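Supplementary Methods, section 5.1.

A reviewer requested that the exact input to the structure prediction be made available. We therefore reproduce it here, unchanged from the version used in the analyses.
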Amino acid sequence: LSIGLSSVYAGSRTLTALAETGYAPKIFAYVDKSSRPLWSVVATLLFAPLAYINVAAAGNIVFTWLVALSGLSTIFTWMAICLCHIRFRMAWVRQGHSIEELPFKAMGGVWGSWFGIILLVLVLIAQFYIAIWPVGGMNDDPKKVAENFFSSYLGFPIVLLFWIIGYMWKRTLPKAINDIDLDTGRKSWLTVDEMRAYRESRKNAPLYVRIYRLLFSN
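The structure derived from this sequence is encoded token-by-token as follows.
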């Protein structure tokens, strides 16, 4: 249940973001007064009955290929998050800002994101190695070899295909560091001195307040 809820949450918000940037129908950009992307949620829930396919006779086969389609998606998602964080920090400094202005800083900083990317690339390499040379040896049947490879690594060509389609459609490349928009949607406009005063006030708060903030706030 928790996996289903998190998938609906992430999938609907991703669809809304795609609509807002012109990569999906505009209807999915609709957000109600409670900040819920209703049509995106509905569209995501339409795929929920696929879960019942596992009760069919060929359910295991279909489920295997559905997992193959999305199995590497988490790897690519976190790789994109790490890369976006690195480029954001580069743009932040390049455009004349101080790191102290940020209300939140990742624990590992930029180096943590680089470490994450390296680990994720190693995972992709290891997965590719296992897809070609499975544990227990390679099957003598070439068809089985191809089937085992794509059931383990189908997500990579799918992601690559969608990137190529997106590029051919919009003809856009990632923005240069100096051109990245850092202000749209920005909530904190405090200066370095104001951020220092803010952090000092939180540091000097009573112990019970700090514990409450640690557990229930930020």
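The radius of gyration is 22 Å. These observations are discussed further in the main text.
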